[in-house]
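idk why but the lab printer keeps eating my pages so im just putting this in chat instead. protein + 4'-deoxy-4'-aminopyridoxal-5'-phosphate:
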Amino acid sequence: MKDQNFLKANNARSLWHPMTSPADSLSNAPTIVTEASGVRIRDVDGHEVIDGVGGLWNVNLGYSCQPVKDAISAQLDRLPYYSIFRGTSNDCVIELAEELRAFFEPDGLTRAFFTSGGSDSVETALRLARQYHKLRGQAGRVKFLSLKKGYHGTHMGGASVNGNANFRSNYEPLLPGCHHITAPYPYRNPFNETDPARLAQLILAQIEDEIAFQGADTIAAFIMEPILGAGGVIVPDASFMPGVEAICRRHGILLIADEVITAFGRTGAWSGSRLWGVKPDFMCTAKAITNGYFPFGAVMIAEAVAEVFESDASAKAAIGHGYTYSGHPVGAAAALACLAETRRLNVIENAAARGAQLFAGLKDLQTKYDVIGDVRGGHGLMLALELVADRTTRQPADKPVPGKVQQAAYEAGAMVRVSGPNIILSPSLVLSEADAQGILDALDAGFRAL
Ligand code: PMP
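predcted complex ->
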């Protein structure tokens, strides 16, 4: 490894960072992570902290999952790559598809289409949704509905259904026919409705209204995250996603659950759809499917949707979509090992227990620090603090404030993530009680330092 002076001096010289201003990178060196073990990361200066971010919501099993490393290594030795485009397959991806089928059967999802990550999974679901309607003689169903504050990756389709202007405005014009509905965000919404259940009803009525306005026969799919992640861990009322599902069924609109963050246990349930008792038509997964050990994703497909494709032998039903790395055997081997570990360790139990511990601890911090306007979580290990300048008016905190808390928390022993006015926690699902407390202590020190 190059020494720390080389790394710090050259970070921005030939490297652009995602979701970062290149100009800002030139003057502000990032934290350069060089090692990790368990749930801890170590930076180039030798400072070791608990990773409260879990990579990027993805390292659910921590950094020392030996069975995954072994599986990757063995697969690299046996078959490092073979494509699964028409006419070929590989053994590992077949085994994985069967495992995923068993894992997601309770969600009604029985086929897998493999991708290289979350954005690919979203793009796949959006495209297959349009094709499904064409196959059923409803070629006019081309539009998509989604939620403001939703995040669906960065490809052109995903960016078009994204509900955050930061990821859209610099890249417009995006895909036509994408319409955005109010987020189920009780802390801030145009109805000034703080009760989550009443807010859910208002937004469901808005969805009905938008469908009537657009014409149901023009809409292909509604895409949503069961809990909105990047938008600031927005937890809808339990009635919301089932309400969306019912509306979709009534109008022949497909429901795409974007579970890139929520699948595989993060919410304390095996999927966000299962958490809310919903059966989507497509489920986008990535992240924890390989825990960050290999770039990989899968779109799970409902039996009824699969039948429409499989019962039509014409060229119209051929899937004209896919990636060189769809079904990559090394990714498939990593995913198989991750699934086995995810089940063996029964991570949902720990996710629920540690999530409850962190949620209570964050609520305690809120009683100590006025800058914490809202605490969100309550379902496993996705939590957020929204920082405000004034609790009564809910005016957002000044821009540098969350970064200052993050920096001080880092010095005190935990990496947390800043997203706009929010501080986000999404640690590994194997986090211990002591390490959860360690994150809370570091945050406490971070707020004290303000
Ligand atoms: N959908 C959701 C809900 C996500 O959170 C993300 C990534 N954070 C994506 C899609 C895109 O995934 P990727 O970054 O792997 O392309």
